[in-house]
Amino acid sequence: MLQCKKAYWVGIFAIATLYSCAPTLDTVQEDTTVVPDQYKNQSGDSLNTARIKWSEYFTDPYLDTIIDVALKNNQELNITLQEIEIARNEIRAKKGEYLPFIGLTGAAGFDKKARYTSQGASEATTDIRPGEEMPEPLPDFMVGAYASWEVDIWGKLHDAKKAAVSRYLSTVEGKNFVMTNLIAEIANSYYELLALDNQLDIVNKNVEIQTNALKIVKLQKQAARVTELAVRKFEAEVLKTKSLQYDIQQKITETENKINFLAGRYPQHIERNPVAFNDLAMKSISTGVPSQLLENRPDVKAAELELAASKLDVKVAKKRFYPSLDISAGIGFQAFNPKYLFTAPESLLYSLAGDITAPLINRNEIKATYYSANAKQIQAVYNYEKTILNAYVEVANQLAKIDNLEKSYDLKSQEVAALTKSIEISNVLFKSARADYMEVLMTQRDALESKFELVETKMQQMNAMVDVYRALGGGWN
């Protein structure tokens, strides 16, 4: 009879175990073999500019000072640092889940049983000691320790901890990515500020040129060589150019405030040397090979770690279908009178129990969690591949931009030289009545626009130098 019962329960447990098997799902594996061997028109040398520290890559002392302040004060970066701390605490929480839980407990109370019940009647007739009846109401005092432990048979809890570690490392890479973008944004804004300073200087000089031209036109009107229309046209051109000063000054204010915001401080003057802007030269860029993006780009590394965590999440969700073993134990003392509380063995109590449980019916919640974890893992695969592709495209775009801007800057420099010379020629021709005032005005306007475009191109060159450094994964190390 006893053997039949044992066989019965073993059969029930076997059925539960078999039924606990997780359903099979289709999944997707990441593909990193599609990364090209080298960038277009690049040598494929392993030397990589991303390995250079930002303080060595940017040699302007004013810019370096601002970046250094921003890395300490920027609010977004500090918020990310707290996310790292949150992820670190998540590791501690997951680690604690597979260790035994041990605690202390204490209790006090009293209980009054109805006399005309079986338990009340038996207590009323029970003598504790000769001549001593059971107290009524009955006090109860207890102190003890308890422990519980889920035995990690399948490694479910350890996998959950590993997933937390991967997400912690991902937040560290996220911090590095924020740092890289912060440095790039400050550098781009700083070069934009220098460009605006130079454009303001160009406008101021152009106002002087146009003011002198206006004086000449007024003298020629007095000599009846031009009409009042010419004077008014020149006056309007001077006023238009002067109005540009205030537009540029507003942009300078906004750009300074943007840099101060990124540096985590209230608006103040940004120290800089505008004269050095025209002397800025493009750095020699070593791109290395595309596969180095997997090591240098924090966003790629973060996506890789998030993918690893999502795979572990699938394992954890799958192992919830399997039976789990819980062990609980307790030991302590309990008595109706404090003077008997620590009397052994009469007041001693202890317990030890083991439970094996397996999901059998209504596993919808476990299935849903498993399906969701698998879907998130597939999402993580596509996000990882997209991040790698985006990194490669960013580098390719910036390399092409650097090459095209270099050619454009050379041509625009020649254009500025030609138009600057044409201003002198037009003024000479105008004085000798061999050119009308409209030709002088158009020449001055074209020269101003070409100088503005030259400064813009120089700024775009510096921005491209910053952006290719960021795209390669530089700035955080």
From TrEMBL:
Q: Which InterPro entries match?
A: MdtP/NodT-like, OMP_efflux
Cite the Gene3D superfamilies for this sequence: Outer membrane efflux proteins (OEP)
Q: Does the keyword Membrane apply?
A: yes
Alphabetized, the UniProt keywords read:
Coiled coil, Lipoprotein, Membrane, Palmitate, Signal, Transmembrane, Transmembrane beta strand
Q: What does the UniProt entry say about where the protein is found?
A: Cell membrane
Q: What is its main location?
A: membrane
**Signal sequence annotation:** 1-22
Q: What is the membrane topology listed in the Swiss-Prot or TrEMBL record?
A: Lipid-anchor
Q: Which residues form a coiled coil?
A: 67-97, 395-465
Asked whether the UniProt record includes Membrane among its keywords, one would answer: yes
Q: Name one Pfam family in it.
A: OEP
- Family as reported in the entry's similarity comment: Belongs to the outer membrane factor (OMF) (TC 1.B.17) family.
What name does this protein carry?
Answer: TolC family protein
